[in-house]
Amino acid sequence: MGFFMNFKHRTASVTLRGGLLACAWAAAGAWHSVAFAGAPPAAPPAVVAQTPAATVPAAPDGTSGATSETPPADFKTLDQEVQGMKKDVIELNKDLFVLQEELLFPSNTQVAIYVSMDVGTFFALDSVTLKIDNKEVKNYLYTAREADALLKGGVQELYLGNLKVGKHELVAFFSGKGPMERDYKRGATLTFAKTVGAKYLELKITDRVTKHQPEFKIKDWE
Amino acid sequence: MRRPHFIDGLALALCVTAGSVWAAPTLIGKDAPDFVLKSLDGPNLRLSEFRGQVVLVSFWARWASDSREELPALDRIYTTYRHAGLVVLGVSVDEDARRARDFAGAMKVRYPILLDTDPDIGRDYQLERMPVTVLVDRAGVVRYTNVGFKRGDERAYLDQIRELLRE
Description:
heterodimer, A: alpha+beta, Immunoglobulin-like, 2 domains, four-stranded mixed beta sheet, four-stranded antiparallel beta sheet, 5 helices, 8 strands, 37% helix, flat, disordered N terminus, B: 167 residues, alpha/beta, Glutaredoxin, 40% helix
């Protein structure tokens, strides 16, 4: 019940915001068409009707002063409005994302699996295949750009799904180029208990310097 | 009172027409479905990473006779326009990767050849005949699709490519 009330509240909030945004966009669009259509409207705003040369006095040294001109107050307000709308859009996007996650992946059954890479001298990642309870749930191919992003410290959300409460087995197969540019394929397995509440697991690729080999681990974030 | 036969016929024709329109929605004007595939040379390539460039995606198959004519024609276009911002991605839908590699090698194409290992791509791009070329503009939107290939079609491709490169 609490969830549905929360959902209703959010939906109302999102709808309201959406409506406000639509109005704001319509207003902005109307202004845009006034300012850039070329033909002035019947009662144009004073700022649009004036030319910059008429509003900005010439600089004392004889230069036009056009480079140092300050935007009129109306433009400033409009810019602030646009910035405000951008902020609203970002906020709305965040709300929708959270709402989607709450609906599709309720926290009671949610399982999220992340990938991270540390160093990567002995391994160039090409793909990861995930199996949960012997069923393939994800096969992801990495481009050079994505692998670079992981090497720079990025963490990727590889899989988001739902699992029942109980024991489960996760198997991850990593393939790529290992030491000496040889094709390399390794697996890592973790048996974990899914309890009530979201489960977060991390696939970690690190270098084992002493053995000159990559190491693959699955970390269970309690 | 019996219904005239032509009304039944008309209803049937309408149903068939509606069905065919529904079954073949166009991709033109929509965002190109993204994919990431392994190339024959090794690296994986993702379509969306070429945003900002004009991309010609050529779906081909070894068993499609038109592909034999299309691949060399696309290679000529690629070598001429790649410095102007054209990317050509050849996607082989052959199941046998080795034979696809041999075929592409015999055709001596210089653009990347990808192996279609993802069953979703055929569905996303509504591939029913081979070859199919899809032209994606700099914003990642499908602008032209061409099905089949016959000698002289490259002129139409060039017109489309030049138009997108000018944008």
